[in-house]
Design a protein that fits this description.
Layout lengths: L1 H6 L1 H11 L2 E3 L8 H20 L9 H11 L3 H28 L6 H23 L4 H12 L8 H9 L6 H32 L13 E3 L3 H23 L29 H9 L3 H13 L19 H21 L7 H37 L1
Antiparallel strand pairs: 1-2
Amino acid sequence: MTALRKHYPPLKTINHSLIDLPTPTNISMAWNLGSLLGLMLIMQILTGLFLTMHYTTDTHLAFSSVSAICREVNYGWLMRNMHANGASMFFICIFLHIGRGLFYSSYLFKETWIIGVILLLLTMVTAFLGYILPWGQMSFWGATVITNMLSAIPFIGNDLVNWIWGGFSVSNPTLTRFFALHFMTPFLIAGTTTLHLLFLHETGSNNPTGLSSNPDKVLFHPYFTLKDLTTALTATTLLMLVALFLPTLLTDPQNFSPANPLMTPPHIMPEWYFLFAYTILRSIPNKLGGVVALFAAVSILLLVPTLHTSKQRTMKFRPTSQTIFWIMTANILILTWAGSQPVEQPIITIGQVATTAYFLIFILITPIIATLENKYHDMHCSSS
């Protein structure tokens, strides 16, 4: 069996990726998030395929079909709850995965990092498209508001919005197109993930110290397969607990009402994982400026490798940079909270201050702090 998996071409690839892969011995549970995201993606695809069998892409029937899935299809309620809450679990893992990459400077593997940012963008698009499909009040108005942002693009904005809608408002063609795209994008994510893993295995995993781990590596199996299995069971248990006992914990109450184009909800807001970006969007008074800031909030991650100025790879031995990292984390939580509040004072001012801090931390503060740490390190080394 050992000879078969090491020499038979299809099994040989799996063997080099999951069994005999040399892995640093000192990586922590934070490195389990990648495999956890793979598990969550598989669960989302499987539950999504089940829901696709019973969903109706018609504005008059979409809301009723979702209700019928939960009420009349055997275990449809479980598939629906797992799929809806699985998206939130997916984003929790993604944000933790990105945070780990920033803290331990995994972004210095530039190709792997850039593909990871592309995966984040694809996931956000997929989640937005999926949020529209239940065709509740917040789904309809969320689609209207977010797609309308493109009208800020000079010259072609209005034509682009009408082309996406398939008409002059969010209607049946819009729902059909969004459903088709939502069905296809997870498979695109799966393919891009494979590319992400190929680049990762080309360079090898980073480790908490940021030093070369070549002298101290072990085989991935059985050491790290057991660690991954532990986190997989934990995450699956948490997801099932939420799906079974708190299925509507993160659902907007407005989305339990069918879409009504004639009644605007008092406070339109996206799902919780988009709230930080939504706050940045509405913090800029100019419409085009808000759209640019929205895309910059995510695409700024592409600049992180070029903004790295520290001589030390990770933040593990840089307490000042660690402080800035946790300030940035708190700032993102403030942006998320502000996005869930009505557009009024002092929420507007808080959002604008947090938005300014968000971009300053990435572009200015973190590189400057790292440069000062370099100087202090050099002074300490020369004096000793």
